[in-house]
């Protein structure tokens, strides 16, 4: 059997081809991030390093919390990294340039020095920043549409962009607080931005993620949904910035609003996860004739607990290689169900559908062979008395699956 690159199959890309566009994008984003940090370092004084440390400190935990919602069909790490670096680099530096130019040549001349900061923060900054953050999501919709399988994907990518942007923006806020008020001011701003409301930018940009996800997975509203998502992000961002002018009461209102939006987004994640499970139950049984999946295997694929138990069993019977094969099998099966979701909604080109389907079934077959070459002594825990694709047939015979596709 020909060698299969599991990551390439799962990501839907050509095996062995270096991701030149991704490398260029990461390089540009990194340069932009360094330039933005350089500006802070030059004008920041002693508070720069304190601000940098505090801005980075909560990021690993926040990202881990968001990625915990994406375990059923996790996104490619390279795309998550690119999204984060876009927010931390291109979006931040672009916002610094355009917001500064807007203040100098638009808001101050038109509204005067006193009102200019309020107008810029409430109307100008949301327009500039959400457009720049959303640009990478629009780019994915144009160039990597098939990578976005639903609302969860849109939320995850948007959150990564938002975290990158918020981290760099917080460096500036912490730095200024330290220089103006010392450690007391720094402590207050850190509690406000780093602990109480660390999800503000991810929440704003998630509106764009929802719009882009709709456009990627539906035929109707493909143009209107991303635009509405961008407008919603701008409105939420503007409300957040404008509320600071109304004291604690204004902040309390936007905190409550953002809390309910966060709860709603989490609900969307769980509702869509259940829908994916239903599609696994509906579509995978049609491939039973291939020998790759049985009713018991479908039950194993239904939930995270069953999948973890299957990976533990695979590691126990075949070591790390078998555990990786089981992971590949589970992810390929999930992608296969999501592929049928696209076909169901009429957004999958028939030729692409067949090619993608065959690649995923091929990966499932390769993963299965890791167990059939040296059959396990004990039946899988999810199929103690039922047939499973990970055990040879009871009557013996060959191990190669039939492939009617």
Automatic annotation (TrEMBL):
<feature type="transmembrane region" description="Helical">
    <location>
        <begin position="155"/>
        <end position="175"/>
    </location>
</feature>
<dbReference type="InterPro" id="IPR026898">
    <property type="entry name" value="PrsW"/>
</dbReference>
<protein>
    <submittedName>
        <fullName>PrsW family intramembrane metalloprotease</fullName>
    </submittedName>
</protein>
<feature type="transmembrane region" description="Helical">
    <location>
        <begin position="20"/>
        <end position="42"/>
    </location>
</feature>
<keyword id="KW-0378">Hydrolase</keyword>
<keyword id="KW-1133">Transmembrane helix</keyword>
<feature type="transmembrane region" description="Helical">
    <location>
        <begin position="246"/>
        <end position="271"/>
    </location>
</feature>
<feature type="transmembrane region" description="Helical">
    <location>
        <begin position="223"/>
        <end position="240"/>
    </location>
</feature>
<keyword id="KW-0482">Metalloprotease</keyword>
<dbReference type="GO" id="GO:0008237">
    <property type="term" value="F:metallopeptidase activity"/>
</dbReference>
<feature type="region of interest" description="Disordered">
    <location>
        <begin position="374"/>
        <end position="405"/>
    </location>
</feature>
<feature type="transmembrane region" description="Helical">
    <location>
        <begin position="48"/>
        <end position="69"/>
    </location>
</feature>
<dbReference type="Pfam" id="PF13367">
    <property type="entry name" value="PrsW-protease"/>
</dbReference>
<keyword id="KW-0472">Membrane</keyword>
<feature type="transmembrane region" description="Helical">
    <location>
        <begin position="195"/>
        <end position="216"/>
    </location>
</feature>
<keyword id="KW-0645">Protease</keyword>
<keyword id="KW-0812">Transmembrane</keyword>
<feature type="transmembrane region" description="Helical">
    <location>
        <begin position="81"/>
        <end position="106"/>
    </location>
</feature>
<feature type="transmembrane region" description="Helical">
    <location>
        <begin position="118"/>
        <end position="143"/>
    </location>
</feature>
